[in-house]
Amino acid sequence: MKLITIFYIINATLLLLHEIESAYEREWELLKLPGKITGFLLIHIPIILVILIGLLEIEKTTLIGAIIGIIMGIGGIIPFIVHKVIVRRKEHFSSICSNILIYLNIISGIGTIILSMSFFA
């Protein structure tokens, strides 16, 4: 297994765990997303499909894999930006577990971006 595949899997796992926590925290209310839980679940269908397709493409070292890898890497940084910079609420995403997920996701996201960009070198 390639190093990029390992980083991608770790990053995707951390993102999916964050999304599970997001459902618990009712993130659609925090971010004022339409459709409540139904809308929240529906927007995750294409996200999960892209994550899975990206894994296959990353492993094959394709251009689309590199692009999805970069997008997923950015996705690993977004929870920090949203929950620690833009929408800071003490009662949401502040547990030790949540913070560990968010900060590990930054590391795995940056690693995924760097390794995905190496496809272009």
Explain this structure to me?
This protein has 121 residues and is mostly helical. It has one domain. It is 80% helix and 0% strand. It is built from 5 helices and no strands. The protein has helices at 3-24, 27-30, 36-60, 63-86, 96-117. Helix 1 (3-24) runs parallel beside helix 4 and helix 4 (63-86) runs antiparallel to helix 5 (96-117). The radius of gyration is 15 Å and the shape is globular. 26% of the residues are buried.
Estimate the global geometry from the Cα principal axes: globular
> What's the end-to-end separation, in Å?
20 Å
How does the major sheet shape up? none
Radius of gyration: 15 Å
> How many E strands?
0
Helix content: over 70%
- pLDDT averaged over residues: 94
Q: Counting H and I runs of at least 4 residues, what is the number of helices?
A: 5
Based on helices, strands and strand pairing, what is the structural class?
mainly alpha
What is the N-to-C succession of helices and strands? HHHHH
Stretches with pLDDT under 50, minimum 5 residues: none
Domain count, please report it: 1
Proportion of residues in extended strands: under 5%
Secondary structure elements and pairings:
Layout: H1 3-24, H2 27-30, H3 36-60, H4 63-86, H5 96-117
Helix pairs in contact: 1-3, 1-4, 1-5, 3-4, 4-5
Summarize the structure.
By secondary structure, the chain is mainly alpha-helical. It has one domain (3-120). It has 5 helices and no strands.
